[in-house]
Design the sequence.
């Protein structure tokens, strides 16, 4: 009965988006009027949620949560095998085993954020409330092993296909698509292009074309095997000879004047 009530309340919330407040939706991922998502719960209810960010490729990006009653909620963002907002019930034995592992991991003793030097990896945000206290831990690769174990447990549950009940259909977020191996660079007026490109020969930086006549705006490409896209962009951004730098967008063709 508790699970049925939650499903009815989520459906009612989706039908009427005049307010951001959702009452008694224990562990539910719901949409607010500003298109954000949040996990709402009542007091004294243990719940854990995980949000997976994107990467330079097609990494699955989604929000997932499960509470102490085994009520699971999933919302796809990008590149997921199931698209939409879903609900599912996990068995009592499995739920108790999961929360036992979560408590053993001692999330409350961890740092709030673990910095990473690897830009091309999804940011993982895991939030836990034991019924009285909140704890959120963010990071990519460099995190405690016990937290990675919890992440794998949550991923295994979130990525299952069978048994989910569709609450609302959504489409993949349409973000701009980029060719990360190409950069649009605007150089300072006194910079000699051939000499400047030669200074980045270790990345096999080459000219594709000048984007606009009589302007120092160029389309360049480089070998991604020799430089991570984020590292390459950061290095050019810090170059005094460079005014602006951006990845080459694929969604719309550039118009030449």
Sequence:
């Amino acid at each position: 009965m508790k699970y049925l009530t939650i499903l009815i309340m989520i459906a009612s919330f989706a039908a009427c988006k005049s307010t951001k407040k959702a009452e008694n939706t224990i562990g539910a991922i719901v949409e607010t009027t500003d298109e954000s998502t949040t996990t709402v719960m009542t007091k004294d209810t243990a719940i854990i949620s995980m949000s997976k960010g994107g990467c330079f490729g097609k990494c699955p990006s989604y929000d997932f949560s499960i509470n102490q009653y085994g009520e699971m909620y999933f919302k796809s963002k990008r590149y997921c095998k199931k698209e939409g907002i879903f609900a599912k019930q996990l068995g009592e034995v499995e739920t108790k085993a999961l929360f036992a592992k979560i408590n053993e991991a001692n999330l409350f003793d961890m740092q709030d954020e673990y910095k990473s030097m690897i830009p091309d990896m999804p940011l993982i945000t895991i939030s836990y409330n034991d019924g009285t206290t909140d704890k959120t831990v963010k990071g990519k690769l460099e995190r405690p092993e016990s937290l990675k174990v919890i992440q794998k447990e949550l991923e295994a549950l979130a990525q299952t296909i069978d048994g989910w009940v569709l609450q609302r259909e959504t489409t993949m977020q349409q973000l701009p698509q980029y060719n990360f191996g190409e950069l649009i660079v605007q150089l300072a007026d006194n910079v000699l292009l051939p000499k400047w490109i030669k200074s980045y020969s270790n990345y096999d930086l080459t000219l594709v074309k000048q984007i606009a006549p009589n302007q120092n705006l160029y389309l360049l490409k480089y070998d991604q095997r020799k430089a991570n896209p984020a590292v390459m962009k950061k290095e050019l951004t810090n170059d005094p000879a460079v005014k602006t730098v951006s990845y080459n967008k694929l969604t719309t063709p550039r118009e030449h004047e």
